[in-house]
Design goal:
The chain folds into two domains: 322 residues, TIM Barrel, CATH 3.20.20; 90 residues, Sandwich (Immunoglobulin-like), CATH 2.60.40. Helix content is 30%, strand content 25%. It has nine helices and 16 strands. The longest helix has 20 residues. The termini are far apart. The mean pLDDT is 94.
């Protein structure tokens, strides 16, 4: 496998001994089909939401997390308004069924770093109250400058947007007490050595300690056999995943001023089908790449793995950039679908949901989600999730105050005493179901001004 050669002209592929241990991986996927494309963007077959949900239900592990990678752009005002509506719909839809959500905030307005920073803070404010919104990726592939459709590096100010956006996102999560929301950015494997050195040195020199202290994880986007390196045999693609992890962990984290203990997420990893790229090739590549990430997870502190993506944008297109999916654009599974499902169930971390999320007894998927956010005179609390039809009454508690609700939608404002500074507010929901009782807990940081 790969060595930690940062700036060589080509990856070194030499043996590395896997370290024992390491936390099991948390898995996820981009649930869409459209992909950012190099050269000429192409249209996509429209989504079929019911078929997406059915496919996700087959992929998720029963007793582990499964997180969905959703993309959002900071572009024009009109586009932002449309995307806000769609983002709210998708986040509510997926989290109500117990999926985690990680939001990618793309920077697509040249020269507007202050506006982007304000936008990032707003996303934290609006979505961080949901305990299943667990990740925020600030910008997308800033080190790749050749493709404005796929990557943010093509837009002026992107490096500063990355740095200042990460700092702002972390500051906002701390201010509001959204401790489940982890902040990161990603790196595209790979561009030319001089560009890579310039990118990471810029983060070090312009980000400094405030930036380093705000980064919870660094993401890796890696597509062996597709862009770099092209033409790689499917059964050798895993070598290049390890090479990418080796470069990122062994060299670039330090060069960027970050700790080598910073967790790495494989944010995008895929292998498309198309003419000359068979379904069997895709399955072989998936097994090679995911297997490599799992085998070497302890070597490089890999904690999360996302496949790109669920279904093809257009299976009839001869362009491989339209055929990354585990399913066709008609939602027919390819062989890689079953391979991914089997590996996720074998390798996924097993862990209970957070205390603000309740899985109802005697059901596989129905959940209740306790959300809480600050308002001027106290906290606003509500109960969401596909288990809500089974709820008969909710008693919300915060700082000794109680607010009860016996009708859906279950939501209340709880007025609290004034505080001189921000305080941690613990919220408890005692929930009476059609059969039995349960409870959920959440906390936020609020300054109450009455």
């Amino acid at each position: 496998m790969a060595s930690a050669d940062c700036l060589g002209d080509a990856p070194s592929v030499s043996p590395v001994t896997p370290k024992p241990g390491g936390r099991a991986l948390a898995f996820g996927i981009y649930p869409g089909g459209p992909a950012g494309q190099v050269v000429v963007p192409a249209p996509s077959v429209p989504d079929d939401q019911s078929k997406i949900l059915a496919a996700l239900d087959r992929l998720r592990p029963v007793d582990g997390p499964f997180t969905l990678h959703l993309y959002r752009s900071y572009s024009s005002d009109s586009a932002d308004a449309r995307e806000e509506v769609e983002q709210r719909r998708l986040v509510d839809l997926y989290t109500s069924r117990g999926y985690g959500v990680e939001i990618v905030l793309r920077y697509r307005r040249s020269g507007d770093v202050p506006g982007y920073v304000k936008f990032v803070r707003g996303v934290v404010d609006r979505f961080g109250s949901n305990p299943l919104v667990t990740g925020l990726q600030v910008t997308n592939e800033v080190n790749f400058t050749a493709s404005g459709d796929s990557s943010d590096g093509a837009y002026s100010g992107a490096r500063d947007a990355l740095i200042q956006g990460v700092i702002a996102a972390k500051d906002e999560t701390r201010r509001l007490g959204y401790s489940q929301l982890r902040i990161g950015f990603n790196w595209f494997y790979r561009t030319d050595p001089n560009s890579e050195d310039g990118f990471w040195s810029y983060l070090h020199d312009h980000g400094g300690a405030p930036f380093a202290a705000s980064v919870d994880w660094v993401g890796l986007d890696v597509y062996p056999g597709t862009f770099f390196p092209p033409g790689t045999p499917p059964d050798r693609t895993g070598d290049f995943v390890v090479n990418a992890l080796s470069q990122l962990h062994g060299c670039f984290l330090h060069e960027g001023g970050l700790s080598k203990s910073t967790p790495i997420h494989v944010e995008e990893n895929g292998y498309p089908t198309a003419p000359g790229r068979s379904y069997a090739d895709q399955e072989t590549a998936l097994r090679s790449m995911l297997g490599a990430a799992n085998t070497y997870r302890a070597n490089y502190d890999v904690t999360d793995y996302f496949w790109f993506d669920l279904r093809d944008a257009d299976s009839s297109s001869p362009n491989f950039q339209q055929q990354y999916g585990l399913e066709t654009s008609a939602y027919a599974p390819k062989p890689a679908f079953d391979a991914f499902r089997t590996l996720v169930r074998q390798l996924s971390i097993r862990q209970p949901p957070p205390p603000a999320v309740v899985r109802l007894p005697n059901t596989r998927l129905r959940v209740l989600i306790l959300r809480a956010r600050c308002y001027r005179r106290g906290v606003f609390v509500d109960l969401r999730g596909d288990g809500v039809p089974r709820v008969r009454r909710v008693d919300f508690y915060a700082r000794g105050r109680r607010a009860a609700d016996s009708h859906a939608p279950f939501k209340r404002h709880i007025r609290l005493h004034r505080t001189r500074m921000a305080k941690r507010i613990r919220v408890l929901a005692r929930i009476r179901l059609s059969a039995g009782r349960t409870s959920a807990r959440r906390s936020v940081r609020c300054r109450i001004r009455r």
